[in-house]
Specification:
This is Polyprotein. Helices cover 42% and strands 19% of the residues. It contains six helices and four strands; from the N terminus they run ββαβαααβαα. A hairpin with a 2-residue loop joins β1 and β2 (11-18).
Length: 132
């Protein structure tokens, strides 16, 4: 199961939880697949912003709590899989992977069922009022 949250100026613009189409053989593989889905969503959002006439400077930050997935994404051998977007408009899309501790990974509440973790991440996501 993968969960992503995309935020812009502190507001949630996309949040989604989906079953992964491929069975992951490790947590690194599962995180890498989720990371790939997140990058696809970032590409789409950045192109939408561009089509609306707004400019976006700098890279889009993606926070990842799995060092193995982060290493795979930066590995030259995996680069062909990572750079799936080859159209000229998507080439200019830049993402930057940053490590974030698991306890602060906001998208985890979309995939985890642990009550205390779930409540903590909901509060950090500023959406508790919507669910009560």
């Amino acid at each position: 199961m993968s969960g992503i949250i995309l935020m812009m100026c502190g507001a949630h613009v996309v949040w989604r939880s989906t079953f992964q189409k491929t069975v992951a053989l490790s947590s690194t593989d599962a995180e890498y697949m989720a990371l790939s889905e997140c990058v696809k969503e970032v590409v789409w959002i950045r192109l939408l912003i561009k089509d609306m006439g707004a400019s976006q400077s700098g890279p889009t930050m993606i926070y990842e709590d799995n060092q193995g997935a982060k290493t795979l994404a930066k590995n030259v051998g995996y680069q062909a899989r990572w750079t799936f977007a080859t159209t000229s408009s998507a080439r200019s899309v830049v993402v930057e992977l940053t490590y974030m501790e698991t306890k602060n990974q906001l998208a985890d509440f979309l995939t985890k069922g642990l009550l205390t973790t779930f409540r903590y991440l909901l509060e950090c996501s500023n959406i508790t009022g919507m669910l009560e």
